[in-house]
Amino acid sequence: MSRAKPLTQPDVQTLHAPAFATTVFTKTLWDNRRVLTVWALATGLLTMMYGAFYPQLSADSLPSMPEAMEGFGLADMSSAAGYLQGAVFGLLAPLLLVFYGAATGARMISANEESGYLDLLLAHPLSRTRLLLQRFAALTVGAVVIAAVTLLAMIAIRSGAELDSIGVGDFTAQAINLALLGVTFGALGTGIGAATGQGRAVVFGTTAGIGVLAYAVNGFAPQIHAEWLRYLSPFHYYIGGEPLKNGLQLTDACVLLAISVILVAAGAWRLNRRDIAR
């Protein structure tokens, strides 16, 4: 009697594929739990640390601020909302969420296609659209978790860092916009990967590059007297309404949500029409 052939990694994945197909969302969350924990803790701790600097920095920052940086929300460093809108929620936190969205979005489809496992997964009762949507839903939950941890971090230091002039509702509005920004660039990374079939590194680099460019456009547009360019950048809808001062701006939030829906829908449409064979 001949000996049984040992199972290879693809064989094992095949055996578990039916169960996987019904739990793509939860499995994606479970597989990314450690990475998500690092992102959430790092973002929360960094925003907490920079937010706690407000009493020491606010009095001396405004006079030395270059005029060219005012478009990045750094014009009003003397007030609590102005300081956080510039240094924390205008620079640090949004760029971290952009890179989270780019890195996670690049893994949603591109990682499996690059490794050759995507066609194996789709050989089972799991449509391409369903796979993409459940993976993207997990990415969205991750962005919400990061924003929620950031919100809790800011509330924790609100009194000690003299940030009492900002209401909890305004902090919540800023956290919602932060999550939506991460979702938007996650949708961009997911859509690019699904539509083009490029490798994870290319998708991440493209998405992150677009994010940095969009950030620069939103910041430098006033300096070149082209305010209209800001409306082409997701960062305008993220921070332009000054949620720390004015609360949640529904129109801006809906624009970010609409951009995400369009990007994911375009990626799903293209994914269903191209050959993914390697």
From TrEMBL:
Tagged with keyword Transmembrane: yes
Membrane-spanning intervals of the chain: 35-57, 77-100, 136-155, 175-194, 201-221, 250-269
MF (Gene Ontology): ABC-type transporter activity
Gene Ontology CC entries for this record: plasma membrane
Pfam family, one: ABC2_membrane_2
Domain of life, source organism: Bacteria
UniProt keyword terms in alphabetical order: Membrane, Transmembrane, Transmembrane helix
Protein name: ABC-2 type transport system permease protein
Organism encoding this protein: Actinopolymorpha pittospori
